[in-house]
Uma2 family endonuclease
Amino acid sequence: MTYISQKTLTKEDFLSQYQDKPHHELADGEIIDMEPTGPHETVSGKVATQIGIHLVAEQLPWFTPRTCLIYPFADAATVRRPDVVVLDETVLDREPQCEREPVITLGRSIKLVVEVVSSNWETDYARKVEEYAILGIPEYWIVDYRGLGGVAFIGKPKQPTFTVCQLVEDTYTQKQYRLNQLIKSPLFPHIQLRLDDILPR
């Protein structure tokens, strides 16, 4: 992850200049180049595929968009671009910008956000946990397939970890899963998913 902005940008600046550049986010007015690797994209693609299969099987009115920007705060120059997001199609008509741009501003439109951990693990385990909880997103998955997170977040010994964050009132409770463990998702109680299923070959 690299900070590349020379000047502070607004959300509107970001949208006009970086909407079509899929590897950039905005945090407090600074552009972040997320620099995804091939294995990172493999993991996020496999997660999206598993979720998509489950959505079809359960006949849920939800979908995983190819591109999606999230404004976690109304008054801050921060724009997130999750690795995977699940949207509720039945409420998107209430999104003020969705007709023109792939921008989500209301937490009720989002059922799940998934972040695949890379070198900026602090953001995924700390800041985004707070941002997504404030927005009211019911579930947030942190897929740390290389075990990069600090020991305060994934324990010792550091190892591949899949964290399911479930929103309870206004705070996430967290449950961690390791290799060979069946992941339990309150949002998708029937999904059959293990960390092993989404690792790069």
